[in-house]
Design brief:
Blueprint lengths: L17 E5 L5 H13 L15 E5 L10 H4 L1 E5 L6 E5 H7 L3 H8 L6 H7 L2 E3 L13 E2 L3
Parallel strand pairs: 1-2, 1-6, 2-5
Antiparallel strand pairs: 3-4
Helix pairs in contact: 1-4
């Protein structure tokens, strides 16, 4: 009779890598669906659904993403202040012009778990409008999409 032991992932034994993604010409949804599993750590053999074992992801050139159809004018983002009449909306075209990082953050956030675990995973996502980023010291690897 053989005894098999289950490996338990320990937070101190994790090695987190840094990945860099160029969003230029990438579709918004497909880009987010490739980033979310990296943040969760599903590409690692030590992945468990109840722990944050994922890596850091840097997204550059986020203002150059593409969407299909009429989503630039029809896709709306809503924000509520909590006060009566405090619902504001903005379409994707204006959102990319004012805050180019927010559409990618919102798309990836929707693909992560709800609650504190998903919020901690989202903190490992770094999104920048241009091709410059301050994370050169981490020596990020290029993630080909």
């Amino acid at each position: 009779m053989a005894l098999y032991k289950t490996y338990v992932t320990k937070p101190l034994e994790l090695e987190r890598d840094w990945w860099i993604v160029d969003a230029k010409g990438q579709n918004l949804g497909r880009l987010a669906s490739r980033i979310a599993p990296i943040l969760r750590g599903k590409h690692k053999p030590v992945w468990v659904p109840n722990q944050d074992v994922g890596d850091y992801v840097i997204v550059i050139n986020c203002e150059l993403i593409e969407v299909t159809g009429n989503k630039l004018d029809e896709k709306m983002y809503y924000k509520y202040s909590g006060y009566p009449g405090g619902l504001s909306e903005i379409n994707l075209r204006d959102q990319l012009r004012k805050f180019p990082d927010r559409p990618i953050i919102a798309a990836v956030k929707g693909m992560l778990p709800d609650g504190a675990l998903g919020r901690n995973m989202l903190k490992k996502l770094k999104v920048y409008a241009g091709s410059e980023h301050p994370h050169v010291g981490q020596k990020p690897k290029v993630l080909e999409l």
